[in-house]
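cache lookup: miss for this entity combination. No prior model stored, computing from scratch. Input as submitted by user K.M.:
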Amino acid sequence: MDDIAYYIGIISGTSMDGIDCVAIKLQNQKLELLASHSSKYPEDLRQQLFSICTNPSISLLQFGRLNVAVGKVFGKTINTLLSANHLNPKMIAAIGSHGQTIFHSPGYPDAFSLQIGDPNTIASLTGITTIADFRQRDVSVGGQGAPLAPLFHQYFFYNKDLTRCILNIGGMSNITWITRNPDSTPVGFDTGPGNALMDLWVSRWKDKPFDAGGEWASSGNVHAALLDRFLEEAYFQKSAPKSTGRELFNQNWLDQCLADFDSIAPTDVQRTLLELTARSVTEAIAQTSPTESDSGKELLVCGGGVYNNLLMSRLQQLLPAFEVKSTAAYGMPPDWIEASTFAWLASKTINKEKIDTGILTGACQPVVLGGVYYS
Ligand SMILES: Nc1ncnc2c1ncn2[C@@H]1O[C@H](COP(=O)(O)OP(=O)(O)O)[C@@H](O)[C@H]1O
Ligand SMILES: [Mg+2]
């Protein structure tokens, strides 16, 4: 008999540009994306979330309220997805909710990774069993709590004839290597910034949330000394497992780098930030490339950075041995991979499957990820 189950996945990434939500069908381990929906935070909530990532001093009262407020937005987003697609909550086995990361601090001995969006609120608003806190469980067994997406990348994109690198360009960027060996565990880590610094800079000068298509950056030139200054950041030299976020690559980081220079034209800064993403990603790829045949190498790109045409063309120029494409080429729209990851991880939690994240996060034992809040 066919084994069929339905799950929902929901996440808001470091860019906080939208809450992404999917419904998936898993039939005999095969995934089908049934529906997707994205909603926005109310602007004042988004501003509060942004500001605590850079200045993480916050009162207990503020924290408690934010946690529930994010949970409510997540719950409403899920309900909209269900009603718009005529999906009955009763058919959904579970929601995998990543939540909103507000602070990721993977350094031991006091490591933690904090995602908010109260799962009690989500379970009550939707009537669906909700799973949350995937990362914190990994941290509790010595892992960094990130990255988790490589597990899904391996499941969805493995191909016996191709060496694939999956590149997610969200606020930060992360890569996953998927070799032709079906038994190898995926290798993946955060390479550093993705869109976050470019978003910060363009919104400072142009009152736009992002540089559509990389158009504004295209009008500037790379400032070689500034690029070198950016690339001096110690994070780029660290070896994996490693993960990062807005706690490091934020406004303060950018201002400190710029302080070493006389004023640089804003368009040149934007172009140099784009080059920083391109160079840090491609250098990480070159340094960690598995020793498999040079033919049939693909770089599959997902996350909002896939819409930055200049960034995509720089990646292709810097990696001539790879064919650079959007994950859409293989039936997975680049905007929905992260939400699908948490829907898929929810199925693992429901089935009490222990997951070995050791090579990805440094965790010392396999664990069932996530906490369950029953409907
Ligand atoms: N048309 C576009 N052109 C350039 N960049 C874009 C475009 N659309 C989205 N982006 C970038 O993608 C980001 C969102 O990517 P996303 O994968 O959702 O990141 P996160 O996981 O951090 O939320 C936006 O903040 C923006 O920088
Ligand atoms: Mg996003």
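stored under new cache key. Residues 4-145+336-373 form a domain with the Nucleotidyltransferase; domain 5 fold (CATH 3.30.420.40).
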